[in-house]
Every structure is written in C-alpha cells, then in structure tokens.
Design brief:
GO terms for molecular function: cardiolipin synthase activity. The chain is α+β, with helices and mostly antiparallel strands. It contains 14 helices and 15 strands.
C-alpha cells in the first residue's frame, strides 16, 4: 500500500465543535489580503451560513480573490442558487459541484479552506449551525453537534492549496486575473504565526475517483495494522468494507484496545446497517458505544497516541469508495493525546453495547439489520458501478 506523505513543521490546532471552529474560520477570512479558497458540502441558510457568507463577501469587497465551491446536493438547489446570485453581486467567485448528477453519482463532501496560502482548515464541519438538525434546520438539537476540525500553519498548507486549485480548475476556467493575484502574493508579507504549540508531522489524504481512490482507506488500514496499544475511532455513519472490519477485529485479536464510538438516531436505515456489523465485532473484542447525547458528526481517530486523523470521511461506502473526501493525518503525541481525550469525553456520554444484551434483541429486529445490510451493500455497488460507467 502507498505510504502517506508527511511534511514537518506544521502547527496543527484542534478545533472542537462550531464554537471553536467557526470563529477561527471567520477570523482567518477577515484577515485575508490576497485570496481565499473555500469548499463545503453544506452551506446552510442559517445564522452560521450567514456569518461565513458575510466574511467571504467582506473579503471580496477588500479586493481579495475569493473562490467558493459547494456541493449541489448537500447545499440544495434553492440555497445554492441563492448563494450564486448573492455572491455574484458581491464579487465572490462561486461554483456548484455536480448539479443534477451531470458528473455521475460522486459528491464533493470535503470541508476545506485556505487563506493567503498561509493558514488552512480541514474539518468534518459543514457550514451550518451547531444547534440545528442536519436534515431539518427547524429541529433544535439537545446539545451542540459533536464535531471537529483543525487549523494548519506550515508547509502542508501548500498541498491543501494545490488540491483546492486543482478542484477549481476541474470545474471551469481560472479567472483571467491570475497574474495580478500572483503579483500580490509575491508582495504579501506573511505575519509570523501567533502559536504556542510545537510543530508536528502532518499529511493531507484525499479520496477522489482518479488518482486517490483508496488513499483514505489505506491510511486507516496502515494505522490499524501498526497499532500496538489503543485505537479510538469515532464516526457517525459506520458501514465499512470488509478490509476495514477485518483490520478492526485483527487489532482487537492481538490485544489492542479498540474503542468504536458511533453516532445513532439520525437515520434509522443507517443505524440498522451499522448494527448488522456489531455481533462479529463484539465477538472479536471491539468495544462499541452509541453516542445519543446529540448528533455525532465527527470523523476522527487516534492510534497509540501517536497517529491521529480529522476530516470529512465517514466509515461508509459513500465516503470510502464514491465521494470526494479530505482528511488530515497528524503524527504528534500532544495532538493525538488531546484528540483522544475528546473522544474519551464522548465515550463518557455514550451507551455501551454489550454482546450479551445484543444477543437478546428479538430475532425479527436482527433479521431487519441483515436486510438493511444487504440493501445497503447492493445500493453501494450500484452507485459505484454507475459512477464508473
């Protein structure tokens, strides 16, 4: 398997939930002097969406080159058209990814931003309010949505920038003001980073349908294969392929403590699919917990307090085999320890799934789980085929 390419001397700051992430994102955009690249799956018409849209428009009003991509399906036809019209009036360059499935079934599920080629953001957070349900913004959540992002200062930002530029070009032409932008970047004086943490090794791992079909899955498999002590994983949508399931069970079988924290309660079909995997994983020694305090949306993992990842990729067929995704992988003890502590806090708010309790579930419900699994598996196979044909 191809190794993940790490770069040194990156300042990576963990941002928990929108209360930490959105202020940092808005502040970076408000400080922009040359250019902003921005991608998100959902750009909601709510308080948070208005706040970030206003920051992007203020940047454009200052003469900053602002390029924004949203996913058409995630953001919705009506909202994406509103953004297109609003941004056109205020000088923000705007594109919608794959409207009406013209490019197949793939969705742009990445959540990325780079400002002035100096600070980058990689996250699982959409641009929507922490307290509003993903599917129905009128529904108020019992607690802020549980999610994570990172800000990055250092050499890795260049790789994120290049990835986002390639995405922008793939969806249309570059603006004719490229030369002016490059001249302004040359004249731009980068302020020294105001940080208090030590630099870390970090890498960007993306999934697309060209060169990086299995990159994120391979990064997980490599980390799980090298685990010796502890594995902590948290994800809202659990429906991994066979290789991931085997890797989790194999780690537990060789004595590694494997903790799997899963979000439940958002989609009944998704919950049923996830629970179809429980018996074998529990039997192999994997500890499974269901997070029910609020919506769990974070896609994070820590291995041996040495390796950690934060990003947009779920453990399901859509993220691992179909959609465009982006995660950052960090090799740093301090960062991994901080993230592991956050996951442990989520575990404390969760309900453990015990093997003996799961065995008592009525046989009708267990059959329902298997039916959901077969329906899901065949649906993913069809979507994958349609996406590649």
């Amino acid at each position: 398997m191809r190794s993940v390419k790490f770069t040194a001397d990156n300042i990576v700051t963990l941002l928990h939930c929108g209360a930490e992430f959105f202020p940092a994102l808005a502040a970076a955009i408000d400080a922009a002097e040359v250019e902003v690249y921005f991608e998100t799956y959902i750009f909601a018409d709510d308080e948070t969406g208005t706040r970030i849209a206003a920051a992007l428009q203020r940047a454009a009003a200052r003469g900053v080159f602002v390029n924004v991509i949203v996913d058409w399906l995630g953001t919705g036809e009506a909202q994406s058209l509103r953004l297109k019209q609003e941004f056109a009036r205020t000088g923000v360059n705007f594109r919608r990814y794959n409207p009406w499935f013209r490019r197949g079934m793939s969705r742009m599920h990445r959540k990325l931003c780079v400002v002035d080629r100096q600070i980058g953001f990689v996250s699982g957070l959409n641009i929507n309010d922490d307290m509003r349900d993903d599917e129905d913004s009128r529904v108020i959540l019992p607690a802020p949505r549980w999610d994570f992002g990172v800000s990055i200062i250092g050499p890795l930002v260049t790789e994120i920038q290049q990835e986002m530029e390639a995405q922008w070009v793939s969806m249309g032409r570059l603006q004719l003001n490229l030369r002016a932008r490059l001249e302004r970047l040359k004249a731009y004086r980068h302020p020294p980073p105001d940080v208090t943490v030590a630099p870390a090794m970090a890498a960007l791992v993306v999934r697309d349908n060209l060169r990086n079909r299995r990159t994120i899955e391979r990064a997980y498999l490599q980390a799980l294969g090298r685990a010796r002590n502890e594995v902590w994983l948290a994800n809202p949508y659990f429906a991994p392929g066979r290789k991931m399931r085997v890797a989790l069970a194999a780690a537990a079988a060789r004595g590694v403590s494997v903790t799997l924290l899963l979000g439940v309660g958002q989609f009944r079909l998704q919950d049923a699919v996830a629970r179809s995997y429980y018996p074998k994983l529990l039997k192999s020694g994997v500890r499974i917990l269901e997070y029910r305090k609020t919506q769990l949306h974070g896609k994070v993992a820590v291995v041996d307090d040495q390796w950690a990842t934060v990003g947009s990729s779920n453990y399901d067929g859509l993220s691992l085999f179909i959609n465009q995704e982006a995660n950052v992988v960090v090799r740093d003890v301090a960062f991994a320890t901080a993230l592991r502590q956050q996951i442990a806090s989520g575990v404390a708010d969760s309900v453990a799934v015990r093997q003996e309790d799961f065995a008592k579930i009525h046989w009708c419900k267990r059959i329902g789980y298997r039916i959901a699994y077969f329906f899901y598996r065949n649906t993913i196979r069809f979507i994958t085929w349609a996406n590649e044909s």
